[in-house]
Specification:
By secondary structure, the chain is of the alpha+beta class. The protein has 20 helices and 12 strands. It has helices spanning 13-33, 70-75, 95-116, 126-146, 161-170, 173-192, 196-205, 219-227, 233-263, 270-273, 281-294, 308-359, 364-383, 398-413, 417-425, 427-436, 519-526, 530-549, 561-569, 576-593, and strands at residues 78-80, 151-153, 156-159, 438-443, 448-450, 459-464, 466-472, 478-484, 488-490, 504-508, 512-517, 558-560. The protein has a 5-stranded antiparallel beta sheet with strand order 4-11-6-9-12. A 4-stranded antiparallel beta sheet has the order 5-10-7-8, covered by helices on one side. A 3-stranded mixed beta sheet has the order 1-3-2, covered by helices on one side. Helix 9 packs antiparallel against helix 12 (308-359), helix 14 crosses helix 16 and helix 15 packs across helix 16. The termini are far apart. Residues 1-11, 15-26, 28-40, 52-76, 194-200 and 585-594 have low confidence and may be disordered.
């Protein structure tokens, strides 16, 4: 019996390799079809899951009482409020809060330029008036928002309204009320006075709004939150270079404004000496900025200090430039060197790889596959740095590390109803599984994960990529199905029985990553918690009963969630006998507690 060696997903050398794998697969499938094992099956659960009915029945962990008193607050991760105001509370790291903070950071930068530019007396335009009122309304609303944003206290997220308001009153409230209150007074005074003298007076008082710039202290936290959104190290370095350049320009802008203000403070200054008083404000600003930049570089210009105040200010700027400019230039040079080092290191690694393959006479086809896969892995690592390369993770406690691994793994495993239920029944069991029983496995294009007849060793969940599964039934008919992330799981019976052999061939169509669950560690970890063990024991009895009732030709290594999900979800329900036993045991326990 034979089947056409045709496969539409690969071409060229990959097709030849796949045809060879498929030919071996067909031969092994023919051998299996001739055995009695393929016609009859009688799976038995592992000893781990074999126990008496009464020993697996427990009162749900949801009935357990939490510690009371002062210790309850210490065990919390989030202090939440259950009243009506909980709908208005904002999580401090939510995307909406980050967006609000980014808008605030942009307005702070605008204030930094707009307020300092008042020394040049620029004319008011429709845009400046709009921005003035927009900024005023934003910071007024920000006071209200600050009363609804939770905060972190000793590692605990506090989302209780009265505590949030008290925390705000102790931190930013006083600064906000002074700045926002004075802004409202000046804005209303400007709109209510039309006399030219009053306008000039109010324009001079606008410089008092420099107190707004104390909000620059908020910029650092916002910039750190935005930087966390950048996944690529290369882009992060580029952003760092632009941040240094922006910092340099902001410092020069501020120095230019101060330089003009000193020259305009009295007669005999550099503005009068160079006849710039009657020039428009744009030229005055450009001249001041030019002078400020020359203090940071070896360049020079014709503008020079004309009195003692200007001379002292110039000396201070030069001394500051010696340190500040060196820091900025050093940071930019370091970032450029880091970029160059990354590029050179990667080029050298690929050169060493190609030399190794060439010296060992590796075929051109295999050499190309290896280089392509290595390039893919390097790109993936740039986007997602491996945990073992992050030194700070070694400082975490075992429980924090388990919770971290759980957050990473469980979104993929929750496609299976059992793991979704375990997250509710015993969260600590899920944490332990993620930290101790789950590993990651990489597959290159056309790699085979297993072939028919092999003893199954692990359960698999697809993280990314696509695989194709092919099996042949006892009649010689070939069945194919695609395996994607978020939909299917692979080789589940290995968790419950030791007699499961792979029934087909599973090959990766693209570069893929899978999460691998070890059945031995799974059984050991689940049995540590009585509630999780009871749930798993109930599940395995019904699962083994079901697969023993399924015809051999209908069995598969691939379990498609949309088809079998509702069925396996029902395996966690107690039957009538188990329910009666549970009810009787619960009554005994309740009487004993009394």
């Amino acid at each position: 019996m034979s089947a056409p060696a045709r496969f539409v997903y690969f071409s060229g050398p990959e097709r030849k390799r796949f045809v060879l794998q498929r030919s071996e697969y067909l031969d092994s499938s023919m051998d299996l079809r001739g055995s009695s094992y393929i016609q009859h099956h009688d799976f038995h659960p592992l000893p781990t899951w074999t126990r008496d009915a009464e020993t697996i029945i427990r009162i749900s962990g949801a009935d357990a009482k939490l510690p009371s008193g002062d210790f309850a607050d210490d065990l919390m991760v989030i202090q939440e409020y259950t009243g009506f105001l909980r709908h208005f509370m904002i999580f401090p790291s939510s995307p909406g809060k980050l967006t609000w903070d980014v808008i605030g950071a942009a307005l702070i930068v605008y204030d930094l330029f707009a307020i300092s530019m008042q020394v040049f007396s620029p004319p008011e335009t429709g845009l400046t008036i709009f921005m003035q009122w927009f900024i005023l309304i934003y910071w007024t609303l920000n006071m209200l928002v600050s009363c609804m944003v939770g905060y972190i206290d000793k590692g605990i997220f506090v989302m209780v309204p009265h505590k949030v308001v008290l925390h705000y009153l102790k931190t930013w409230f006083l600064i906000d009320i002074i700045v926002v209150g004075s802004d409202w007074i000046f804005s209303l005074s400007e709109s209510g006075n039309s006399a030219e003298s009053s306008v000039k007076l109010l324009r001079s008082l606008r410089l008092f709004r420099m107190v707004r710039l104390i909000r620059i202290l908020r910029l650092r936290k916002t910039m750190e939150s935005v930087s966390d959104l950048v996944d690529s190290e290369y882009i992060s370095i580029i952003v760092s270079i632009f941040k240094m350049l922006a910092l340099l320009m902001i410092v020069n802008h501020v120095i230019a404004c101060f330089w003009f203000w000193i020259g305009d403070s009295g007669e005999g200054g550099w503005i009068d000496a160079h006849n710039l008083m009657d020039d428009n404000w744009e030229y005055q600003y450009a001249t001041s900025l030019h002078w400020a930049i020359t203090q940071f570089t070896p360049a020079s210009m014709h503008i020079q200090p004309q009195n003692l105040n200007e001379r002292l200010f110039a000396l201070g700027v030069v001394v500051f430039a010696l340190v500040g400019f060196s820091y900025v230039v050093g940071s930019i040079s370091g970032s450029l060197a880091q970029l160059r080092g990354m590029t050179e290191n990667r080029a050298r690694q690929f050169w060493e790889l190609r030399r190794h393959l060439r010296k060992n006479r590796v075929s051109i086809t295999l050499s190309a596959r290896i280089q392509k896969y290595v390039e893919h892995v390097l790109e993936s690592q740039e986007e997602n740095v491996p945990a073992e390369d992050i030194k700070l993770l070694t400082l975490l406690s075992e429980q924090l590390r388990s919770e971290l691994e759980c957050e990473i793994c469980m979104p993929h495993f929750s496609v299976h109803p059992l793991f979704a239920r375990l997250c509710v029944v015993s969260r600590v069991t899920i944490h332990r599984l993620a930290n101790n029983a789950i590993q990651k496995k990489q597959l290159a294009r056309t790699d085979s994960l297993f072939i028919p007849g092999e003893t199954a060793t692990h359960m698999y969940i697809v993280v990314y990529g696509r695989l194709i599964y092919s099996r042949i039934d006892s009649k010689g008919t070939e069945h194919k199905e695609l395996v994607d992330k978020g939909e299917d799981w692979i080789s589940e019976p290995v968790l419950w029985t030791s007699s499961w052999l792979h029934l087909g061939l599973l090959i990766s169509m693209t570069e893929s990553e899978l999460m691998v669950l070890d059945p031995t560690h799974f059984g050991r970890v689940v049995n540590l918690n009585p509630d999780a063990a009871a749930l798993a024991a109930t599940y395995v009895v019904n699962f083994i009963k079901w697969i023993n009732s399924v015809q051999r030709d209908s069995l598969s290594d691939i379990w498609q969630g949309e088809n079998v999900g509702p069925r396996v979800a029902g395996f966690m329900e107690l039957d009538e006998h188990q329910f009666k036993s549970a009810k009787s045991l619960a009554a005994k326990l309740m009487n004993w507690q009394k």
